[in-house]
Amino acid sequence: MTVSAVLAAIDRTDNAETSEEVTEILQQALASYGVAYHGLVRAQLPHEPLGDALLSGILPDGWAETYVKRKYLLIDPVVRHLGQSRSGFRWQTAAELHANGKHGKRMDRMMADASKAGLKDGYSFPVHGRRGLLAHLSIGGDPVDLQSADLALVGALASKAYWRMADLKGLGQTHPLDALDDIKLTHREMESLHYLADGMTSPEIAAVLEISNHTVDWYMNGIQQKLKAKNRHHAVALAFRLGLVS
């Protein structure tokens, strides 16, 4: 029944005439798995309100406000994992991969807040386009075990729903990150960016690369200019969204 419901939803999405209809199709298909909540979200800029990027969503009361207020987008392990994943994955997988990083405690707090809000478990499905990650579908609620075939089906539905929603809203492949479409970092800039994303300081990066602190700062300035970032923290957040680091 579940498989047929999702396949039927994929077919129906092509003929949806409004964004509300796409949301209804998603909600009905996901309910067949026992999933209560979902969010179809285009790629966001750091500090951008979740509501501005939300294309379709049935979310727990207050969760969007909590997510934005506590700036969870900047440290969300799921968001970070989306940049390197080509298929759907469980939230816990992403959380475990980033548990030992510098933001580990804030990530734990975010996952606890999500669980308290009703998002006790869930999965996310990336939607890719010509320049990388365009959007993702996140689904959650009470714990549900999805098998490989289920992940493939929901992933296909996520892609279909995004492209139909993009057509209805006139988005195409455009969103705030498109201005960074043709960004090109040098090999040294990429090395410096990866070490920066790992939480290293300029002196630490200089020691690893065997260059001066001044040279590291020069690379960092170049990275910030190319990413149009306000500061180093902003540059790292953008790099994760663009899939430049993982």
What's the mean pLDDT score? Answer: 87
Largest sheet: 5 strands, antiparallel
Sheet/helix structural class: alpha+beta
Lateral strand order in the biggest sheet: 2-1-5-4-3
Question: What is the chain-wise order of helices and strands?
Answer: HHEHEHHEHHEEHHHHH
Instruction: Report the total helices.
Output: 12
Radius of gyration using CA atoms only: 19 Å
Describe the structure.
Helix 9 (187-197) crosses helix 11. The longest helix has 22 residues, at 148-169. The chain is 53% helix and 13% strand. The chain contains twelve helices and five strands. With 246 residues, it is α+β, with helices and mostly antiparallel strands. The protein starts with a helix and ends with a helix. Strand 4 and strand 5 (132-141) form a beta hairpin.
Would you kindly provide a brief summary of this structure?
With 246 residues, the protein is an alpha+beta fold. It has 12 helices and 5 strands.
